[in-house]
Amino acid sequence: MPKTASIPIVRLDDVSKRFILHKDKSLKDRALYFTSRKQSRSDFWALSNVSLEIQLGETVGLIGHNGSGKSTLLKVIGGIIDPSGGVVERRGRVAALLELGAGFHPDLSGRENVYLNAAILGMSRPETDAVFEEIVEFSGIGEFIDSQVKFYSSGMYVRLAFAVAVHSNPDLLLVDEVLAVGDEPFQLKCMTKIRQFQLEGRTIVLVSHSADQVAEICTRAVVLDAGKVVHDGDVGEGIRTLREGYERDRVEAEQESAQRHRVTLAEPLTIHGVSVTDGAGVAIDGPVEPGTDLTITIDAQLKETLSWITGFTLANPLGQTVYRLNTEGLGMELPDTPGRYRVSFSVPATNFSSSQLVLSAGATTPDGHIIASVNPAGHLDFTADPSGAGFVQFAASGRIETSADS
Ligand SMILES: Nc1ncnc2c1ncn2[C@@H]1O[C@H](COP(=O)(O)OP(=O)(O)OP(=O)(O)O)[C@@H](O)[C@H]1O
């Protein structure tokens, strides 16, 4: 299949999906409002006004919190469920790998299910005959192909379903979280197959909770939040948006829980601010050139007598720590008496090759109990050093020697 840019294979215009929720009424409600109906109905919008175009050859990762609408969107894209409003257009052959076992009949054998599933995916019997052995080999199901699938493990289910889907010659492959169910060698096999699909210019849309997986294979990320698209585009940026949402939710949940319990825990330490300056003491406001000396300063107030450690972390958009430093690591002992302290860390000649890093700062007791955390405390854009690649760079050099006897 030739790789062709800018041909939409899927187009969603202002798509919404409503589910009707049935909730049991309490006896009190029924007595108060003299109603005999046991249930109340309410509308729930799992998707709201989603518009997107997916081009031929793209690999799109759908990410978002639990319940944000990812699976619903995947099903709408695949035509498995109809939207309540808006327009969905799709071209080409679709293979959808949705929730575990969907499309498999438990009483039929693996072999019978392969033929049934392949027929659902639009393959004729001779077409299926031609790839049957390949499907069985890819799935690694072996002799169990003639057992009823109700005796399969969840991994075996997924392996067989994925094998059928990828051998059905789809233009558009839709994959829900199911890949996580397979073991590591099988996941590797799936990744290799997905890469082959990408080279062949096929289109893939996958739902994943693994930021690493999305970063590794997707060319675009769509982030959903409560049924709405909150980011569509760059993968690293999308993962950052998602992580910031998680952090916001965590802080809100903590505040709510503190309010609910009406306990105002006196925090022993407050971080008032975190600043980043260069070697000349000038605040960093823009790209950081290779070789820049950085000073990270944590402004903290200790409110009671306590031993404490403070430090900072620089992480990439996937949340992986690229660099971490704290007072304990540097052998610094902080005063344990109440007061306001500015703790500075000097990091000379920095050379991070990751383009954007997230700065966070925190404080713990010596036994690791977190007493303050600021995340994110800032974002730093490092200008890439073209001499090498990887998380960090060094002042590297090279040399060529000519051997005298050549
Ligand atoms: N058939 C249904 N009837 C009623 N509500 C539904 C139905 N299917 C999904 N929902 C609701 O719609 C919302 C979105 O569900 P969806 O499965 O798309 O989310 P998700 O982002 O894939 O979640 P997860 O990460 O947990 O798999 C959820 O609140 C879910 O309870």
From TrEMBL:
* The keyword Disulfide bond is assigned to this record: no
Which organism is this protein's natural source? Answer: Luethyella okanaganae
What are the alphabetically sorted keywords of the record? Answer: ATP-binding, Nucleotide-binding, Transport
Similarity remark: Belongs to the ABC transporter superfamily.
Say if the entry is tagged with keyword Transport.
yes
What Gene3D superfamilies does the record point to?
abc- transporter (atp binding component) like domain, P-loop containing nucleotide triphosphate hydrolases
Protein's recorded name: ABC transporter ATP-binding protein
The GO terms describing molecular function are: ATP binding
- Extract the InterPro entries matched here: AAA+_ATPase, ABC_transporter-like_ATP-bd, ABC_transpr_TagH-like, Bact_Polysacc_Export_ATP-bd, P-loop_NTPase, Wzt_C
Question: For the ABC transporter domain, which residue ranges apply?
Answer: 10-251
Q: Matching PROSITE patterns, A to Z?
A: ABC_TRANSPORTER_2
Q: From the UniProt record, list the coiled-coil ranges.
A: none
Organism superkingdom:
Bacteria
